[in-house]
Amino acid sequence: MGAPAGLSPKKAKKKIEGGSNVFSMFEQTQIQEFKEAFTIMDQNRDGFIDKADLRDTFAALGRLNVKNEELEDMVKEAPGPINFTVFLTMFGEKLKGTDPEETILNAFKIFDPEGKGRIKADYIKEMLMTQADRFSQEEINQMFAAFPPDVSGNLDYKNLCYVITHGEEKD
């Protein structure tokens, strides 16, 4: 992706950023990761993510029976067609409200008075389904699918917090 003809790379970058400051919200490596994700989701490679792309992405992830209304709702979250800048802006807005890792860890530590870094999966399930903003069974299933408890039935919440705030598992 070189600079448009006749523009120095610096001026081209300014032009791309335009009136939207979304690119300054992220590190260059993060923007690259979002670009890769966008490219994976833009299944038909037309530069936009639409309902068909979302359906194909879900199918690639093994979820075949996505309701049309669900796809409509996702697409409606955008102010218009979802090109890369809109995609990045949507993630920026979602991530703005994300608590820092320490805040999330402190919330889990309430359930881990001995500070082991793990909580019994059954216990956290009960808490999430009966307290405050109650989780549905489906939300619990999704959480445990993404973060399965270990063989002893414990949830590694330190890893969970890391993934929530950084987006990938530590090695």
Notes on the protein architecture:
Strands 1-2 form a two-stranded antiparallel sheet. It has helices at residues 9-17, 28-41, 51-60, 68-76, 84-96, 101-109, 121-130, 137-146, 157-166; strands at 118-120, 154-156. It is built from nine helices and two strands, in the order H-H-H-H-H-H-E-H-H-E-H. It is globular and about 50 Å long. Helix 6 runs antiparallel to helix 9. The chain is mainly alpha-helical and 171 residues long. It has two domains: 24-95, EF-hand (Recoverin, domain 1, Orthogonal Bundle), CATH 1.10.238; 101-166, EF-hand (Recoverin, domain 1, Orthogonal Bundle). The model is unreliable at 6-19 (pLDDT under 50).
Short description:
The chain has 171 residues and is mostly helical. The chain is built from nine helices and two strands, in the order ααααααβααβα.
What CATH calls the topology of the largest domain is: Recoverin, domain 1
Q: Any idea what the CATH superfamily of the largest domain is called?
A: EF-hand
Q: How big a fraction of the residues is strand? A: under 5%
Mean pLDDT: 82
> What is the string of SSEs from the N terminus onward?
HHHHHHEHHEH
Provide the structure class. Answer: mainly alpha
User: Number of DSSP strands?
Assistant: 2
> What's the number of helices?
9
Q: Strand order within the widest sheet? A: 1-2
- What is Rg? 20 Å
State the domain count: 2
| Contiguous runs where pLDDT drops below 50 for at least 5 residues | 6-19
What does the overall shape look like? Answer: globular
- N-C termini distance: 32 Å
Subunit structure: Myosin is a hexamer of 2 heavy chains and 4 light chains.
InterPro entries: EF-hand-dom_pair, EF_Hand_1_Ca_BS, EF_hand_dom, Myosin_RLC
GO molecular function: calcium ion binding
Organism: Ficedula albicollis
